[in-house]
Each structure stands twice: as C-alpha cells, then as structure tokens.
Amino acid sequence: MNFLVRKVLSQDAEKISLLSNQLGYPISASSTLRNIEAISQNENEIILVAQAGDELAGWLHVFRTIRVESGMFGEIGGLVVSDRYRRKGAGKMLVERAKQWCILKSIPSLRVRCNSKRKEAHEFYAALGFTESKEQKVFETSLT
Fold first, then answer.
1. Which CATH number fits domain 4-127: 3.40.228.10, 1.10.10.10, 3.40.50.2300, 3.40.630.30?
2. Would you tell me how many other CB atoms lie within 10 Å of the CB of residue 45?
3. pLDDT tens digits for 42-100?
4. Which of 55, 76, 111, 135 is deepest in the core (most CB within 10 A)?
5. Minimal CA–CA distance to 101: which of 58, 138, 48?
6. Cβ–Cβ under 8 Å, residues 78 and 113
C-alpha cells in the first residue's frame, strides 16, 4: 500500500487525537493541537504522519536528546498506526523517515521505549532492526 509521509499540519490534530485514543491514550483534539504547536516550534523534534488518501494511517513523534552519561540519540516519543492500516507498511515508512531525519541531524542512534505489555510492538521494532538494550520501569510524581 502507498502512503504519503509528511510533516504534521495543525489540521491533523483531530485525526491524531482519534488515533491516540484508539491505542489507549485519551487526549482531546484541542490538547493534541497544543502539543503539535509546541513540538513544531522545536527544531530538535518532528511529528510525521502517514496519509492514505484522505485518511491518516498513523503518526510518529521523534526527538533529539542528550544524556550526560550516554551522549546524543534520537528517540521515538510516540508511534500510532490505525488498526485499519497495521501490517500494511505505514509504521515501517514512518520509522524509516524518522531514521532519515536523525541522519540529517547527525544523530548517531535511534531508540524507542515500548510498554512491556505490547508484544506485537516488540516484534515490529525487532523486525526493523532494533535490538533490546535494557528493561526498565517508569516512575512518576504529580507536580500539581
């Protein structure tokens, strides 16, 4: 199947919100738009979408980051493909474009964090050449 992979537009917010909800991340279209606008202002981040005709097949957010102990790398902050377009190449195309973006930014590697419950996602990333480098837990505290 052919997909057009392009940078996100503000008009994509509602469709991205619906896709995010589909994968269990409840977010409104207005909050999604605010996030898109904030991310789009940072040259070290990009949101890409895969379009199939008038439909949004999926989206990917990738960013450049640096750690004191391990240096610079790119990280996929989110990747959602519509259940209608899974296993049709949209996710693979988005990841390939993310890799190209990292290369253009002289970023030496690309990482992705994946919920331990998402076994299909683990297989997807392994098939694209990612190797598991560690297992971790995420801890969070509210600041409000």
1. 3.40.630.30
2. 18
3. 999 999 999 999 999 999 999 999 999 999 999 999 999 999 999 999 999 999 999 99
4. 76
5. 48
6. no
Write the CB contacts of 142 (distance below 8 Å, at least 6 apart in sequence): none
Range list of β-strands (E), 31-82: 45-52, 55-67, 71-81
Assess contact for 4 and 51: CB atoms under 8 A.
Answer: yes
Domain ranges of the chain: 4-127
pLDDT of residue 135: 87
pTM assigned to the model: 0.92
Closest by CA to 46, choosing from 4, 91, 95, 1, is 95
pLDDT surpassing 90 at residue 1: no
Please list the helix, strand and coil fractions of the chain in percent, rounded to the nearest 5, in that order.
Answer: 35, 25, 40
**Amino acid in position 103:** I
Give the tens place of pLDDT for each residue, 87-141.
Answer: 999 999 999 999 999 999 999 999 999 988 888 999 999 999 999 998 888 899 9
